[in-house]
Amino acid sequence: MPAVPTRRASLARRIILALLFGLAVAGAVLTTAPPASAASQGAGFGTWAPLSAHGWHGSMLIDGVHTYCIVPGLPAPTGPSTDHGVRGDAAGLSPQQLAGINHLVTTYGQTADPVQAASVGWAVKAIADLDTTLHSWGYPGDSLAGAVDHIFSRLAPEHSADIQQKAEAYYAEGMAVTVPGADAALTLTTDDADPRRGTLRMDGGAGTAVILALENAVFAETGTAELARTVPGTAYEIRAVAPDDAGAPFTVRASAAVSATIAPAVRYFTTEGQQHTAGPGGSVHYTVTTEDDIPRPVVFSAGITTQVLAPESATGHFVDDVTLTPVEGVWPRSADGAFVPVRATAVVYRTDAAPAGPDVPADAVPVGELELVTEPAQGGGTYRVTSPWQLPGPGYYTAVWEIAASAQEPSVAPHLERDYRWSEDFGVPSQVLHVPTPPVAQPAPDDAPRALAATGLWDDAGARVGAGGCAALLAGVAILVHLAQRRRVAAR
């Protein structure tokens, strides 16, 4: 019956696979279980046994690390101990208790001195549970020094006073440890009037050392991008620096490297049915970051050079070639990559005499204004500006250009310095246009002789000749009348 061996082989294979799977699972459990290591007697006084007349007062060595009891009243941990690693929740203790215990076992507990080890042991137990520490050996009072003496006056009286003094000092020091905060947070601010300026502040992180670092900015106080020994809650002034010459908006980023010598944690060991012990829990190291919510605009200083189209003109418009260039920095761009449009204005003055600057004289009369707004596609460069009005008459015309932050659109003003104003001097030769006074018209000379008018009147010369003839005729008539009269008288 050939089918039977086949079923038997299949069953065997299933059994083998099941065994292999079980071994694999068991192996995984074994490899992931916490490591176990037996504790041994460290430095201290008393009897190394789970229970004894006066107990064990000092450290327990586990893998070469001095550990200390954190659950007063339990037997000494002479059996195999399980290492749970560095924990911030060991034995249900608070961060304040764990920080104090970590400080003591790290700073003073790694010692072979039995007096110091015993003193650390009493202080650590007192931080973990003061009431049980005081009374677990029958001491009725409320003094840590009294509880120590209650044991050591019989166990090692020659060391009692020293251990009392050290235990109380260590306890006070451990209780005073500042819990290093893991809640550090950074805040960046931007000055609305000058986006190159602002502050960086770190809140939280109590009891830690902090190194602040900036990207695309420096600290105003030092001119560096890194600042050590900072104080939480303090706002440090910063100065933003564009990362390149592209003129595009940029983002300031900040980070804080937070550290503390003592973490609110311990290296946690447990021994079944016996003591829980604590070894050094290490330090605190973490980093927090932040960055601008809105990219910062590039700030620059703009200036103008100008040239009138013609130095003299009989009449017409005032025509000016105006060149705008950055005096400091680069021409900024908006978020879409276009150059920001800058507005420049000018007042044109008229004077009778050739102008002399740099100030506008009292007799200069303003006759009109000019305006220029740069093109987003061009930015800086030369623009021709023609007045919408005509020159009113002879004189010297001088344009005085200026760029003011107050004259810009709200989106453009942040690209200029706070209260920025660039103004041209009065009387710059390239800005003067002269309209000369036209000459007075003179009558043309007439040498041709005048003909007698059709009315029969003579010209001046003829009139003088005629008048002379008439006078002679009248004189002759008068003489003849006189002679005739004399003859009549003689006849009578």
From TrEMBL:
Keywords: Membrane, Signal, Transmembrane, Transmembrane helix. Residues 1-38 form the signal peptide. The chain crosses the membrane at residues 465-484. The keyword Transmembrane helix applies. This is Thioester domain-containing protein. It comes from Microbacterium wangchenii.
